[in-house]
Specification:
The complex is a heterodimer of chains A (154) and B (762).
Chain A (H helix, E strand, L loop, with lengths): L1 E7 L2 E7 L5 H8 L18 E4 L2 E4 L12 E3 L1 H4 L7 H8 L9 H14 L5 H8 L9 H15 L1
Parallel strand pairs in A: 1-5
Antiparallel strand pairs in A: 1-2, 3-4, 3-5
Helix pairs in contact in A: 3-6
Chain B lengths: L1 E2 H4 L5 H5 L5 E3 L6 H12 L15 E3 L5 E5 L8 H13 L6 E5 L16 H28 L6 E4 L2 E4 L6 E3 H5 L3 E3 L38 H5 L9 E2 L4 E5 L9 E5 L10 E5 L2 E6 L2 H10 L1 E4 L12 H7 L4 E9 L2 H6 L3 E9 L2 E2 L7 E7 L2 E6 L4 H12 L6 E5 L11 H15 L3 E4 L2 H6 L3 E2 L2 E9 L5 E11 L15 H6 L20 E9 L19 H18 L4 H8 L3 H14 L15 E12 L2 E12 L4 E12 L6 H20 L29 E7 L17 H13 L10 H8 L1
Helix pairs in contact in B: 4-5, 11-12, 15-16, 15-19
Chain lengths: 154, 762
């Protein structure tokens, strides 16, 4: 066990944890942040995605000790209904999710991508999101929402 | 963090607390002292029994005039609750926003079958519509008595009953009954589940008067999901709970023979629960439960590897003795005689693999056993049946069990959710603490009930004039109900099977749903025994549109093969034989919207590495019909298929919410593309080897269609039918037919993965 400081959504939390434990379990069980979700534990689907120092990271495989000192942002820290991130606003406007279990991956990855490139082509949007999984098949809506968000930001 | 009290906001609690003090009884005269007696009882928290024949089981008007609609089905992400709210608001004449639909808690809703067979609106909505209409009738009668006016001189506007001629003579729903319960008998058909139907005396509105039904109202649950404010089943936390993990064998069919508990002694709170083939662990912390499941030393029994080599699967199906054969659909003439007179015969055989639900999140369930009461929080799409299953699994009276659905990952049939609930129940009983069961990805993909693998044979007899005179279609495969469509019976759950309950044998498959008329026609299905009877990772069950995609992949590919053999345009051949006018309409609408050029397939004007083609397929499903035109691009060198564009015409009778319907159809088609191009459960002799997203690939966003054009055919005069499954049905055939159009190569085995396409093209 180790004592670690976690900077999540602008707040520093002190936890005692196995340093090898993936960040996901610290976020969910120690910090009580219900997003992100457990989808695979293998960094294959994206349901657990958070931003670590602005970069999308799969919290299900990132050891918690490896993010000590870094700034972690979860979906809950990305924006609020009052101050939404454009991708969140676009998600609501396009009515994207069905079950919504996967959305951390898409939204956090898209948020990081749009920061780098806020005038993407359709092909660039697809490439930026490759590998993420959605089982409900909301892909058409996801693409529309990222495009819409880019128009808000561009 | 969510405590279970918070999760229960899905329940009726907040609504019922607003209740008043009197049960309102209409239609049956009840003596005043009885009424007061019931009122007294209510004040203590009781209400009319939660039975299908009670209006209060579906509709309540709260003290503030808002309406609660208690729905015994649930929304798996298609926005069903919006449509139900629209139907209820419409019949009650209240604003849409006044209605809250409360789903899937066995303490507040009767068993309307859960999410099942795309019947959410078709059957569930029908009942809610009738209940709401009856509630309105009752309220108008109450107002008539109060206002001393005849009921037929009253109208309702936004939950206020008033005189047609004098709006000042008025009585609001809130004033009439707000906070109290209806006590009105309905005419229940004595069925539960999908078939439950309990109308009152009221007739629903004429569709021409609909103002709310038919509107594209948005979902209110999107924003909470997007802002991380909605708790999923995985987020429910119970005081004192432990985390559970199951341990499955590496060799399917083997069972633990020796457990070394000392191997996990160092892990805080770790405990083993072992009963026959059932093996699970719990620990206080989730990470510790994960470690305990990994570290526990288990010696497994020897067992004969139960599966054939995957390459031999279809041969196995072909050669296996049919366990059951059934004729289905509309038969005509004498097929055998007609084939004897044929000038030529077209025949083909098609193959479809096992497919996994591979839910976005591995199943999660929580069970608490406290003071003789069992509560289960589950993402199952059928919580009422989970309740039955838990009662049977634990051997407790059903009345002591409550199952609460909390939104989980999208569920498209008999997924792993029900198994997880039973596993949690067994562990909770064994360890005496509430248990949160969380499956792993390996278990979600490797051990969920599978969509059955099958082969399909079709043949057509053609006479000398080029007319199709006979048609025969036969499916042969594993049963769609090797394990049942819900977890209500222990033999249908992994926990039951692994603990050793006697197994049941259930056979079911299906035949094409279409309206092709041929002078001689016969359709049939045959089922074969499972490869491993008990605790099989290849046990077969319902997966979205159970056996529909495989059957219609075959039947609609075959119609195209017949068209090609006759050098006919595929739309033209269909229109020659399709007789149902609504079927004709969807085929024509899809072809027209897609700009279909009439000509036989394949096109022969393409050279080079890229080829483009278009194909059509159509199907019915329980009253709904749809036709799909697929346009695909093929890279001959890589074998990569891009299903670039779909045009679908969809007729599900009356449209309740066109926005929700369009989204549902889109998701349906994309999932259909995934199942067609990629999805195949892999296995070797010992086990299922599709255990993650690498070994069970699905459609990637880079392969998503460029466009899905949806043509909705609204028939307000017809009852609404389902939309959750019909659109997935013709997708595979439309793609296969487009590939044939582009290349002249007929793919008869799904999935059309690049390797397989490349091989077929070479």
């Amino acid at each position: 066990m180790a004592r670690l400081n976690l900077d999540v959504n602008g707040q520093v939390h002190r936890i005692d944890a196995d340093p090898d434990m993936p960040l996901l379990y610290a976020l969910r069980n120690d910090l009580g942040l219900n997003n992100p979700h457990f989808g695979c534990g293998l960094a294959q689907c994206g349901a657990c995605t958070v931003l670590v120092d602005g970069q999308p990271a799969r919290s299900c495989v990132r050891p918690v000790a490896a993010v000590a000192g870094a700034k972690v942002v979860t979906l809950a820290g990305l924006g609020t209904p009052e101050k939404p991130h454009p991708i969140q606003k676009a998600y609501v406007e396009e009515q994207v999710p069905q079950c919504g279990y996967c959305i951390n991956g898409w939204i956090m990855t898209a948020a990081a991508f749009l920061k780098r490139n806020n005038r993407p082509t359709d092909a660039e949007i697809r490439e930026a999101l490759t590998g993420l999984k959605c089982r409900c098949g909301t892909h058409m809506g996801i693409l529309r929402a990222v495009k819409r968000a880019s128009e808000m930001m561009g | 963090m969510t405590r279970h009290e918070t999760a229960a906001r899905f329940s009726r609690r907040a609504v019922l607390k607003a209740g008043g003090a009197l049960v309102v009884s209409v239609g049956t005269p009840i003596a005043l002292d009885t009424v007061l007696g019931i009122g007294q009882a209510f004040a203590q928290g009781t209400k009319p029994p939660l039975t299908p024949e009670q209006l209060s089981s579906y509709i309540a008007v709260n003290a503030d005039g808002t309406v609660s609609a208690f729905f015994g089905k649930m929304d798996m992400g298609q926005g069903l609750f919006v449509a139900i709210g629209q139907m209820v608001a419409e019949e009650l004449d209240v604003p849409f926003k006044a209605v809250t639909v409360i789903m899937g808690d066995t303490a507040t809703s009767v068993n309307q079958g859960g999410a099942s067979g795309s019947t959410g609106i078709q059957m569930g909505g029908r009942q809610m519509r009738m209940a709401a209409a009856e509630a309105r009738r009752v309220l108008v009668e109450m107002a008539a008595a109060k206002l001393a006016l005849p009921a037929d001189e009253l109208v309702v506007t936004d939950g206020v009953v008033h005189a047609k001629t004098d709006p000042s003579k008025r009585a609001s729903y809130a004033g009439l009954i707000g906070g109290r319960y209806f006590n009105v008998q309905l005419d229940w058909n004595k069925q539960i589940g999908n078939a439950l139907y309990a109308p009152g005396k009221a007739k629903p509105k004429d569709p021409k008067d609909h103002k709310i039904v038919g509107q594209p109202i948005a979902r209110a649950d999107i924003a909470p999901k997007v802002y991380a404010q909605e708790d999923f089943c995985t987020d429910v936390v119970l005081p004192g709970m432990v985390h559970g993990r199951m341990i499955r064998p590496a060799l399917a069919g083997s069972v633990p023979v020796k457990i070394d508990e000392s191997s996990i002694r160092e892990i805080p709170g770790a405990r083993v629960v072992w009963e026959n083939g059932f093996l699970g662990v719990v620990a206080d912390k989730e990470w510790d439960a994960i470690k305990a499941a990994e570290k526990l030393k288990v010696e497994w029994s020897e067992a004969k590897p139960p599966f054939p080599d995957q390459g031999a699967l279809y041969d196995h199906i072909r050669k296996a003795q049919p366990r059951k054969r059934e004729i289905g659909g509309k038969q005509a003439g004498n097929v055998d005689e007609a084939f004897k007179t044929a000038a030529r015969v077209v025949e083909a055989e098609y193959e479809w693999p096992f497919q996994s639900h591979a839910c976005m999140g591995p199943a999660c369930a929580l069970v608490e056993i406290k003071d003789g009461a069992v509560t289960c929080w589950t993402g199952s799409q059928k919580p009422h049946f989970v309740r039955n299953g838990i009662a049977a699994t634990l051997g407790v009276p059903i009345e002591t069990v409550r199952a609460i659905w909390v939104v989980g990952p999208g569920s498209y049939g008999r997924s792993d959710a029900d198994d997880a609930a039973m596993d949690a129940a067994v562990l909770a009983k064994a360890v005496g603490r509430p248990v949160r069961m969380q499956y792993t990805r390996e278990q979600a993909t490797g051990w969920d009930p599978k969509g059955p693998a099958s082969i399909h044979r079709a043949r057509a007899a053609i006479d000398a004039a080029g007319q199709v005179i006979a048609y025969e279609f036969t499916s042969k495969g594993f049963s769609r109900i090797d394990v049942g469509t819900n977890g209500s019976k222990p033999p249908d759950t992994l926990a039951g099977q692994l603990r050793g309950v006697p197994l049941a044998v259930n056979d079911g498959f299906g035949v094409p749903a279409e309206s092709y008329e041929f002078a001689n026609k016969r359709m049939a299905w045959e089922t074969i025994a499972p490869l491993l009877e008990r605790g099989s990772p290849l046990r077969s069950a319902h997966l979205r549109d159970p056996v529909g995609p495989q059957i219609h992949f075959a039947s609609e590919s075959f119609i195209d093969e017949v068209a090609a053999a006759l050098s006919l345009d595929p739309v033209e051949l269909r229109l020659r034989h399709v007789k149902d006018p609504r079927d004709v309409a969807v085929i024509k609408a899809a072809a027209e919207k897609a700009g279909w050029q009439a000509r036989p397939s394949p096109r022969r004007d393409q050279a080079g590495g890229k080829a483009t083609g278009r194909g059509i397929a159509y199907a019915q499903r329980n009253g709904t019909r749809c036709a799909i035109v697929a346009e695909v691009d093929i890279d001959r060198a890589s074998g990569q298929i891009w299903a670039r564009k779909f045009t679908i015409a969809h007729d599900c009778g009356q449209i309740i919410n066109p926005a929700g319907l369009t989204h549902t159809i889109e998701g349906n088609i994309v999932q259909g593309v995934s199942r067609t191009l990629w999805e195949e459960v892999r296995f070797d002799g010992r086990a299922v080897t599709s255990v993650d997203w690498m070994s069970y690939p699905i459609l990637d966003i880079t392969e998503t269609p460029e466009k899905i054009e949806v043509v909705l055919i609204d028939r307000p005069e017809l009852p609404p039918t389902g939309a959750g499954e019909p659109a997935i049905r013709p997708v595979a055939a439309a793609i296969a037919n487009a590939i044939f159009d582009a290349t002249g190569v007929r793919l008869r085995r799904v999935p059309f993965s690049p390797d397989r396409v490349k091989e077929a093209l070479s």
